[in-house]
Amino acid sequence: MALAIALLASVMGACGGGGSGVPTLNWYINPDNGGQAELAAKCSAQSNGAYRIKTSVLPNDATGQREQLVRRLAAKDSSIDLMSLDPPFIPEFAEAGFLRPYTDAEARELTAGALTGPIESGTWDGRLMGAPFWANTQLLWFRRSVAQAAGINPARDPVTWSRLIEVASAAGKTVEVQGNLYEGYMVLISALVSSAGGKILENPEAGKNVRPAIDSEAGRKAAEVIQQLARSRAANPALSTTDEEAGRAAFQGGQGGYMVNWAYIYGAAQEAVAAGTLDKAVLDDIGWGRYPRVDANAPSRPPLGGINMGIGAFSKHKDHALQAVRCITSQESQTEYMLKSKNPAARAAVYDNPEVRAVFPMADDLRSSLAEGAPRPRTPYYTDVSTAVQRSFHPPASVDPNRAPARAAKLIVDVLKDKVLL
Predict the structure, then answer these.
(1) Was domain 137-303+377-416 assigned CATH 3.40.190.10?
(2) Do domains 2-129+305-371 and 137-303+377-416 have the same CATH topology?
(3) What pTM, to 2 d.p., does this model score?
(4) At what angle do helices 331-341 and 35-46 cross, to 10 degrees?
(5) How many Cβ atoms from other residues are within 10 Å of residue 56's Cβ?
(6) Around Cβ 162, how many Cβ atoms within 10 Å?
(7) CATH number corresponding to 2-129+305-371
(8) Is the alpha carbon torsion for 375, 377, 378, 382 positive or negative?
């Protein structure tokens, strides 16, 4: 209740515009280290008085962000002008009429030079609904000393999950993944299924009439990886409750060996060294390579994430919001944001910037992973599908390759047909 009152007061104050007559655009953002607020100030100044942007911070987790926006947009809240949207939720928002679609001409402008993954993630039913702002993908991070002792070089040679778990177990080191019952676990499962050559949904555009495809050979291979890790010495003892930050902490500790995680972790390690909370020797020992393979003969399909810019369908300032999106998603702004917030850009050319390459020595790996990665299922009912899959595969140590995929497929159908409540 206190949060709702505070947000309402914030919005009412913002809508007043201070009596200046200059439209105030309310931009609802995911939490970061201030990078989006800096872009809001920059783009406001560059508008030469046409508008000003005020940021409001959404909850930390993607699910909480979705819930808060859905509630307000369902009530046709006109104070939501701009939104930083997690890509899996764009189909739902688009189908509900919560977003202003970009015209074909606007889409060509806003996607020029953008990587394939971010463009696809912002598109629904043939229309761009979320302009690519920043993108994200996971790499395999490894301790150089541990990999060298094991006789492998993931930076040079593709490595399978099976091999990774085997060498980590033999050395008494961990392979860190996101195993908690939350969206991060869905990211893992989806990437494993995609890397095995499969998909979770056959026809996601069919809405409630979707046909699950996870009960397949690819689904079973994904489950086998989770089972192998969870029952090995390489598993974090707290695997079933581990998220990105818990995994990062363990990876940087004495038992750390390998980890799949988002791009921010290298910048976070640099900042920890600067703050004196992490030994520089640990930072120097961190290497990176392509996301692990499920099949030794097939390239992995790294997970995709990031943020796309949406314009509220009920905004009273849609034209000004479009101007703001142009500024926020420009190559210059994406470069500034990548350097400030350590989140990868959606435009390919940003990765050639010398300053970016100095901060992100793995820039080429990130760019190629973003171009060749696989999105999570794109459906208006993504939240239900994700929850059904997570529950069917959790806890990791209980996963049975002969049962979990079939259980997930059945639960997806039952939930969407209103036979089961999650």
Answers:
(1) yes
(2) yes
(3) 0.92
(4) 150
(5) 17
(6) 16
(7) 3.40.190.10
(8) negative
